[in-house]
Amino acid sequence: MTSVQINLPLPVLPQGWAGEKDFKSVGQLSQANDRNIEPVGPHFLAHARRKRHKRTFSEDDR
Amino acid sequence: MSAENDPAQRVAIGISFGNSYSSIAFTTGDGKAEVIANEDGDRQIPSILSYVSGEELHGGQAKSQLLRNSKNTVAYFRDFLGQEFKSIDPSPCHQSAHPVDHESSIAFKIQDTEEDKENTVTVSEVTTRHLKRLRNSASDYLGKSVNAAVITVPTNFAEAQKTALNKAAKEAGIEVLQFINEPVAAVLAYDARPDAKLADKILVVADLGGTRSDIAVVASRGGIYTFLATIHDYEVSGFVLDQVLIDHFAKEFLKKHKSAGDPRENDRSLAKLKLECEAVKKALSIGTSANFSVESLAGGVDFTSTVNRSRYDLLANKHFTAFARLVTHAVEKAQLDPLDISEIILAGGNSHTPKAASALAYAFPESTTVLAPSTSPTAINPSELSVRGAAIQASLIQEFELEDIEQSTHPMVTVTPHLSHAVGVLCISADESSGIFNPIIDAETPLPVRRTAIIATPREGGDVLIKLAEGLRHIKITKPEPKAKTEKEPSSDDDSDEDSEEEEERREKTWKVGTVLSEAALKGIKKGGKVEVQINISADLAVNAIFREVGGKGGVRGILQGGKTTQNGSA
Ligand SMILES: Nc1ncnc2c1ncn2[C@@H]1O[C@H](COP(=O)(O)OP(=O)(O)OP(=O)(O)O)[C@@H](O)[C@H]1O
Ligand SMILES: [Mg+2]
C-alpha cells in the first residue's frame, strides 16, 4: 500500500504536555468483528503465508 | 490419471459456469487473462447441450435446437446441481427439457443416443458433458490437455452444490483447484490490470445475469476482499428483459396479423420470438435501434420490425429500477450509505445495456463510479469478468499442492478480525470537538494491518501533537437555505411547494471523533517538515505506532495493549 497523504497540519503541542518518552496511551480500540476474508488474489496469498507461518509484515518484507 | 494432483503436470484454466452462458480463459506468460473462443468462435458459450440422432451439440449450436428439438435440449441447469427436486425452480426450463425428480437428485429425460428411447440423464452427468466440451475447447486452443481449473460460483452456492460440481468436474477430467465467488472474481479482474492502483475502497458488484441477479458489497483493503452483504434475486433477470421485448413484438405482430394468432401461445413461435428478442436486446446495447426479423413467426406469417433503444428503455424501465433498488438494499444491508460506495462494478451479460448502468448512476451519488461499457471506456466486458478473475486465480495457485490450497482457504486462515471503526489522526486542533479526523486505516480492514501516513505540520514547524483516535463515519445533511426572494411562506404545508424545491438537501461524508487512543509529541520539526506515522495493528488489537519526522532521525514509538477481542465466542 502507498502511504496515506494528509494535507491538513497536525496541531501544535499544547504547553505543559507531558508523556513518558513523549508518548501517552489513552484508550483501547473497539472490539473487532470476525469476518471471512475471500481466499482470492495475490494479497490474500501473502496474508495466508504470514498467518500460516506466524510471520509479521516486517519479517515478510525481508 | 497419474498426473492428477501433481502440480507440475497441471494445465489450469479459469471457468465461469452460468445457468445461461459459460466461458473459459487462461493467463498468458505475462500475467494477462485471455478469454478463449470455442470452435464456433464464441466467448460466451451457451450452457446448453442438445442431442440430434445421438449426436451431441453444444453451446450456440445446441441453443438453436431450442426451436425444433427442445425436448432433447438441456439448458439452465447449473443451479440444480446438488439440489433436491423440491427446492428448485424449474421455470427457466419451460422451453427445453424439463427437470424431473430422480433418486433424490435431479435429472432430464432425453433421447441422447441413436436409439429411439428416452434416457434419464442426471444433472451431474449433464454438467460433466458440458464441462468436457469446455475443457476440449480450451485444450484445442492451448494445444495441450487442460486438466485443472478454478471455477466461479455465486456466493449462495451451498456446500452440497460445490461438492456436486466438484464431482462432475472430476468426471470431466478437471481437477477443481478452487471455487471462487463470482463477485470476487470480478473485483480481481479489475485489480489485476497493470495500471490498477491498490486503494482501500468499498465497492459493489452488481450482476444482472440471465436467470438471476446477484449483488455483493465488498470491502477491498490492501487487495484483500471481504463481503459485507450479499443479495440474490430471481425476479430481476435477463428473462424478464427478454419478456419485455417478446411482449412488445408479439403485440406489434398482432396489430398487423391478428388472424395469424398470438405467437406467445404456440411453443415453436414462442421459441423463435425468444431467440430473436435476446438478439435484439443485445443489438440495443450497441445501437440505438435494432431489427427484428423472424420467418414464419406464427400462422406461417413472416414478420420484420424495428425497435428503438429509447422504447426498450421505457418498456423495461421498471426492471432496471428494480435492479438499482436491489443494489441500494444491499448497501443498506451492509449498514452503509450510498456515499460509502466508491465503485459499482457491473457484471453479467445484461450489464451491457446502457440503461442498467444509468439506472445505477441515477440511484447513487456522483462520487460513485459506475464501471460499465456505457459509462466507462476502460470498463472490462461484464460478461467476461468472472472468467478473467478465475483465470488469474488459477495462475496464482496452479503450482500449489491441493492440500496447501485447502489449508489456505480453511476458516482457520480466512476468519479474521476486522476493525469496527476507522483509525486516524486529529489535524488542526487536538481538541476533539474542533480537531478534524483524518483516517489512516478504514473500518472493515482485516487484521493484522500495517499502514503509513505522511502528514503536514504547522507552517513554522516546531513541536506537534499526534493524537490517534477512532473515527466514526457520519453523514452530514445540509438542508437548502430557504430562498430569500420567494414570496411563499417558508413553512408552507402545500405538497406542490416541496416538488418545486429546486435544490435538494446536500449529503456529505464527514467524521466524528470516537475513542482517543494515544498522544505522541514530536519536537523540533523543521519548517515545512512532514511527519510519518506508521501504525501496526495486530489480530489481538494491540497497536504499535511509530512517529517520526520524514527525513529526520529518531522518533517516538508507542504501544497500546490489545485485549478486547472476539476471538472466542460468536457475537
Ligand atoms: N451484449 C448484451 N447486451 C444485453 N444483454 C446481454 C448481452 N450479452 C448477454 N446478455 C444477456 O445476459 C444474460 C446472460 O448473462 P450471463 O452470461 O452473465 O449469465 P449467466 O451467469 O450464465 O446466467 P445466470 O444468471 O442465469 O446464471 C442473458 O440474459 C443475455 O441475454
Ligand atoms: Mg451469472
Question: What would your notes on this structure say?
Answer:
Chain A is α+β, with helices and mostly antiparallel strands and 62 residues long. Chain A contains 2 helices and 3 strands; from the N terminus they run E-E-E-H-H. Chain B is α+β, with helices and mostly antiparallel strands and 571 residues long. Chain B has 4 domains: 7-183 and 385-412, Nucleotidyltransferase, domain 5 (2-Layer Sandwich); 195-234 and 320-381, 2-Layer Sandwich (Nucleotidyltransferase, domain 5); 238-315, Actin, Chain A, domain 4 (Alpha-Beta Complex), CATH 3.90.640.10; 417-475 and 507-567, Sandwich (Substrate Binding Domain Of DNAk, Chain A, domain 1), CATH 2.60.34. Chain B is 27% helix and 34% strand. Chain B has 12 helices and 28 strands. Mean pLDDT of chain B is 93; it is low at 492-500 and 564-571. Chains A and B meet through strand 1, strand 2, strand 3 and helix 1 of A and strand 12, helix 4, strand 15, helix 9 and helix 11 of B. Strand 2 of chain A pairs antiparallel with strand 25 (506-525) of chain B. The complex binds adenosine-5'-triphosphate and magnesium ion. Magnesium ion is lined by residues 18, 207, 209, 348 of chain B.
Report a brief summary of the structure:
The complex is a heterodimer of chains A (62) and B (571). By secondary structure, chain A is α+β, with helices and mostly antiparallel strands.
Question: What share of the residues of chain B lie within helices?
Answer: 25-40%
> For the report, how would you describe the main beta sheet of chain A?
none
Please give the most extensive interface between any two protein chains, plus how many residues each contributes: A-B, 48 and 98 residues
Strand content of chain A: 15-25%
Number of domains of chain B: 4
Number of strands of chain A: 3
Strands of chain B, total number = 28
Name of the CATH first level of the largest domain in chain B:
Alpha Beta
* Cα separation of the termini of chain A: 16 Å
In angstroms, what is the radius of gyration of chain B? Answer: 28 Å
Q: Work out the helix count of chain B.
A: 12
Give the mean pLDDT of chain A: 91
Beta-strand proportion of chain B: 25-35%
Described by its quaternary structure, the protein is heterodimer
- What global shape of chain B is seen? globular
Radius of gyration of chain A: 18 Å
CATH topology value of the largest domain in chain B: Nucleotidyltransferase, domain 5
How would you sum up the global shape of chain A? elongated
